Amino acid sequence: MGDFHNSEADLDRFRFRLGFAAVFVLLAFALLLGRFIWLQVIQHDFYRTRAEDNRIALIPVVPNRGVITDRNGVVLAHNYSAFTLEITPSQAGKLDETIDALAEVVEIQPKDRKRFKRLLDEAKNFESIPIRTRLSDGEVARFAAQRYRFPGVEIKARLFRQYPLGHVASHAIGYIGRITDRDLKWIEESEQQANYKGTDHIGKTGLEQHYEFELHGETGYEQVEIDAGGRALRSLKRIPPVPGNNLQLTLDAKLQEITEKAFGDRKGALVAIDPTTGGILALVSTPTFDPNLFIDGISPENWKELNEHPDKPMINRTINGAYPPGSTFKPFMALAALETGKRTAGQAIADPGYFTFGNHTFRDDKKGGHGMVDMYKSIVHSCDTYYYMLANDMGIDNIAKFMGSLGLGQRTGIDIGKDDSGESKGVLPSPEWKRQRFKRPEQQKWYAGETVSIGIGQGYNAYTPIQLAQATATLANNGVMFRPHLVRHIVDTKSGEKRPIEPKPIRDLGWKRQNLDVIHRAMLGVNKEGTGARAFAGAPYQAAGKTGTAQVFSLKGAQYKESAVRKHLRDHALFIAYAPVEAPKIALAVLVENGGFGAQSAAPIARMVMDYYLLGKLPGGAAAEDADAVEDDNEE
Amino acid sequence: MIDLPTTLRRWWHQAIAHIDFPLFIITLAIMTIGLATVNSATYDSTHRMLSQAGNMGIAVVVMWLVARLPPQKLMGFAIPLYVLGVVLLLAVFLFGITVNGARRWLSLGFTRIQPSEIMKIAMPLMLAWYFQKYEATLRLKHYAGATLLLLVPFALVAKQPDLGTALLIGSVGFYVIFFAGLPWKIIGGLIAAAAAAAPFIWNVLHDYQRRRIMTLIDPTTDPLGSGYHIIQSTIAIGSGGPVGKGYLNGTQTHLEFIPEKHTDFIFAVYSEEWGLLGNAVLLLLYTLLIGRGLMIASAAPTLFSRLLAGAITLGFFTYAFINMGMVSGILPVVGVPLPFMSYGGTALVTLFLGIGILMSIQTHRMLVKK
């Protein structure tokens, strides 16, 4: 190194160093080659013998999946042991002949053969593959007597998942199914490959999927001596598996069951929440399905029936159905008006039965109007005109801001499905939303006239029942908002300790006490002298509520006035409620698809749920439609 | 009508103008062997092989794009990429996700990234740029500056801990400094110092790293723990013999004795099935790859491109040597994949970035000379 730099000399030095590096590379590779010759030629015999003697295989032992129970310990998902007939292909000789011979001893259906073929393609040769699951005692005895005829065929006791209540709460619990390539990717991303060796089922939907890695447990291992062909000879050592953690839910299975019954064959959803924690008491989506069908791989006929059924039983309406809230939106609008100072409770309007904006007339359901209407009356009698005017005065931005703070139009983050993405967002209408939703500039513009129908929960408004229930619970809890969740605590099987799912409040909306009192009083009035009075007649507790009816129309048409409701499509019935008003223990949202007026079909279900939850009272019969509930009071 | 073939030909010529065919054919050959071996290692499903084939497609496109950028453009990336790399490594240090006791990943919400991967390219780029900048006034203090640029990311990666990647980043950086003319006296001094510091380094190593070194000396001390990998992969290689057991017939592989068989230990799978003959072919291919890379470095017109090409080429060597040395039991087990063979998209893209840079240096040479 000197001060003087000559580029030719630099280049020469660089090339010399390249040469040096090349020699170094060659020497290093020669060293490797030498090592390979040592291992593969000189020591070859030694290593060949070692490979042949290599007889210790680690065979995974799958842990028992965690049990799911409701808040009272009622089992919703558990495992039961059953006998399976299994074939180890490498020991069984000609498989087709073996299976034909077995069919004379135990019943083997074509679908069993199909499944066996499929599993055979996926399996490794020292694994045994089930040809029949759930053998009867008679079949076990018959096979045992003839066992000598079938080398490589064994009866094994295996654990199967079962959902004892069948259809009940299937949308919340979900189900498990065989691991697919997509699940494999999930396992890899979660760095769980090692733990899933030997596992062949995984949570596919609901809680089973959300808490998969809690429920699964830790795989154990068995050291097995095997021969060069891979056949297991004897067990040397066993590291037992650790069973998966159990889930105890906030859900009440009995409440869930009677609620599902109350829907009868009607489509709909109900979400009941403990407003002080966000714990879900019932999560109903009807029609339901039997998750037990999925465990062994659902048969094509069953799948077709579920998937192509016009009522769509596989859709979880509580988180994936987005519906206009109808008049159940009004108490929230009223609270927004009080909080933003756009109205006082005593301010009254004169309702002529319609509201005119530009050259369009928005009608109230009651011809001739309600006369003088203050805030209390607007909720109790569900006056549309009051809210047309209010929406127009508040403007869309104020409405969207307030409703957004309640969680409307956002995923609640409920603990079902793999992550949030399974939950629908719904639509919280705002100019911003419209810009993003539509492509053409003329569609992207927000028209002031569109704000008017937003006020009565129509227009672009579309929320999931879980959002509506969360908003109702937040109102019941005086503005302190919780994330709705199904699991109360996870019971760690290793330590026995209970890990609670913390009911952490998401936010306190800081509403004024006197404003809340106005709304609570008005919603109490709904069930005393208004649209919910018939359904809650004689209730020994103070229940606040609001009926709603959502018009069934397509959102695509954009303008509200063009989307006149077709007569044969009955409206969706809605009802939100909470009780007891003084210190609410339960808040809920009910939706009955094509159920007509909320007071008629939705409110009686809410009454039944509350009677059971607050009083322990079982319904006398299925909650029948209360046909004449709203004869003279059909304002919504 | 006559024009169309002419136009197509012109497009084609433009498309391949920056491809260096010797380099491309050699990597393609190694990659084909790799794909076949991934298939054998994960024989029970084709999912991995298909996914790896997809990774290769992406990697080749990346190579093609990078090869089209002239080296002057590449120089422009040196500082931003290096700074980004260091910032991300710091972020990992502060908020990284811990997986299996090592903090290597950074969550972006929708995906996770491993910032140390960026450093594998950013380090030689940065140092080559640095020496080019001080080419005319190079003094000893500049070597010290370069060493500092090298040590910061090295320490951050080693701290994660990810010894394999730290080693790669460190060695690639060292190659640049070496080619830039670090005096032999200092190199000798460093080796002596390293030897003297060995006992001290032993104390700083993590437990599992120490175990791996002990295992190397006597694998049988821990046959079910970290020695298991080496024992089983050595048996696989040795039992392969002169010509191997035949494709898809490796018993060590298919009876699940080889761990990480489609990633870090893929060489054991290959070696068991193709034997010494196969190993010789693979070594020859790597030698050709490195030879071609060194030729490109030798003919490169600027100091920047010379240093970069030389360091990247020796980087490939380091990968290959450490991996094969570890699998055959002469180096400790560190997590280094076998270049162009092991399963894994990120590593493949990084490797092909390197190939693309070599091609860019080679094919833009004439333009610079004019």
Outline the structure in words.
With 636 residues, chain A is of the alpha+beta class. Chain A is 36% helix and 19% strand. The longest helix of chain A has 36 residues. The radius of gyration of chain A is 33 Å and the shape is globular. The termini of chain A are far apart. The C terminus of chain A is likely disordered. By secondary structure, chain B is mainly alpha-helical. Helix content of chain B is 73%, strand content 3%. Chain B contains 15 helices and three strands. In chain B, strands 1-2-3 form a three-stranded antiparallel beta sheet, covered by helices on one side. In chain B, a hairpin with a 2-residue loop joins strand 1 and strand 2. The model of chain B has no long low-confidence stretch (mean pLDDT 87). At the A-B interface, helix 1 and helix 2 of A face helix 7, helix 10, helix 11, helix 12 and helix 13 of B.
Task: Provide the descriptors you would attach to this structure in a database record.
heterodimer, A: 636 residues, seven-stranded mixed beta sheet, five-stranded antiparallel beta sheet, 36% helix, globular, disordered C terminus, B: 370 residues, mainly alpha, three-stranded antiparallel beta sheet, 3% strand
What is the structure about, briefly put?
The complex is a heterodimer of chains A (636) and B (370). The C terminus of chain A is likely disordered. Chain A is an alpha+beta fold and 636 residues long.
Helix and strand pattern of chain B = HHHHEEEHHHHHHHHHHH
Report the portion of residues of chain A in β strands: 15-25%
Q: How far apart are the first and last residues' alpha carbons of chain A, in Å?
A: 93 Å
> Helix content range of the residues of chain A, please?
25-40%
Radius of gyration of chain B: 21 Å
- Tell me which protein chains meet in the greatest interface and how many residues each side has: A-B, 43 and 55 residues
The biggest beta sheet of chain A, please?
7 strands, mixed
Form type of chain B: globular
Helix content of chain B: over 70%
Structural class per helix/strand content of chain A?
alpha+beta
Number of strands of chain B: 3
Oligomeric state, counting identical vs distinct chains: heterodimer
Low-pLDDT runs of 5+ residues of chain B are: none
Distance between the termini of chain B: 37 Å
